[in-house]
Design brief:
single chain; alpha/beta; eight-stranded parallel β-barrel; 9 helices; binds fe (iii) ion; binds zinc ion
């Protein structure tokens, strides 16, 4: 059975997100760890996280995915922004231990003109400061669309970050279908080739999650505009191939399509019907 869910709002609490995921027909979900502007986050309510853990066990949930704020940029040229990235990720990774053995996804960052090499170096440095031996969370680097100076739109860049990380055994990759298509990888016309290339460069064992989004723009656009499943340039047939592919079909999938909850429920049902 397909492991699928969508992005939900953490403001209703953890157990409620689990209930919501079930109502939508899913068995996992993604949430932002905090509001994108940063600032103080609520103390974790241990009763709430424990209730979610029980709900997940009773309902065959796959791993859930926490998403770092998209304003987090480990390779900013601005020191205060880099500090925010450090403080946020350090705090997030400690909070994640209330929900052990799940996953934490982040956008590697934008090098803002400092160069990809420098960007990769700074991203790895941050990971080496915030990751630690005892943590149970798997940290995922998200494949990016290559908008502006984003690092991580090429598999080689993600590989280079992983190679420089001290705790690379706890690192994986989240493949965003809209982003890779935007980055020029033709998952519509030649999924097999893309997966082969991913395997050669990064290794398929690192692939831990999928973001399922169609794209408002054609292959290689570097724009990062998500579209509803089947309504964009990737198209329904490609999503059918993706969720039924032998090496992808057991991965947890997360929708980040422009939808309200009822739209998510329809997409979840559609993808499960494959
Ligand atoms: Fe993302
Ligand atoms: Fe994404
Ligand atoms: Zn995106």
């Amino acid at each position: 059975m397909l492991n699928i869910g969508c992005h939900l709002s953490v403001s209703n609490g953890f157990e409620n997100m689990g209930k919501q995921a079930l109502e939508l027909g899913g068995n996992t979900f993604q949430f932002f760890t905090r509001n994108p502007r940063g600032g103080k986050t609520k103390e974790i309510d241990k009763n709430d996280t424990e209730a979610l853990i029980i709900l997940m066990k009773n309902n065959n949930f796959s791993k859930i995915l926490a998403h770092a704020p998209y304003t987090l940029n480990p390779c900013s040229a601005n020191e205060r922004t880099r500090e925010f990235a450090f403080e946020t990720m350090e705090d997030d990774l400690h909070r994640m231990e209330y929900l052990p053995y799940n996953m934490y996804n982040f956008h590697p960052g934008s090098h803002v003109g400092q160069g990809v090499e420098k960007g990769i170096e700074m991203i790895a440095q941050l990971l080496n400061k915030v990751m630690y031996e005892e943590m149970t969370t798997t940290v995922l680097l998200e494949t990016m669309a290559g908008k502006g100076s984003e690092v991580g739109s090429k598999f080689e860049e993600l590989r280079a970050i992983i190679d420089r990380a001290d705790f690379s055994d706890k690192l994986g990759v989240c493949l965003d279908t809209c982003h890779v298509f935007d980055g020029g990888y033709d998952i519509r016309g030649n999924l097999e080739n893309v997966l082969e290339h991913f395997d050669k460069v990064i290794g398929l064992k690192r692939l831990k999650a999928l973001h399922l989004n169609d794209s408002k723009n054609p292959l290689g656009s570097h724009k990062d505009r998500h579209e509803k499943i089947g309504e964009g340039y990737i198209g329904l047939e490609a999503f059918k191939n993706i969720v039924t592919h032998p090496v992808l079909k057991d991965l947890p999938c997360f929708l980040e399509t422009p939808n309200e909850l009822d739209g998510y429920a329809r997409e979840i049902a559609l993808l499960k019907s494959f």
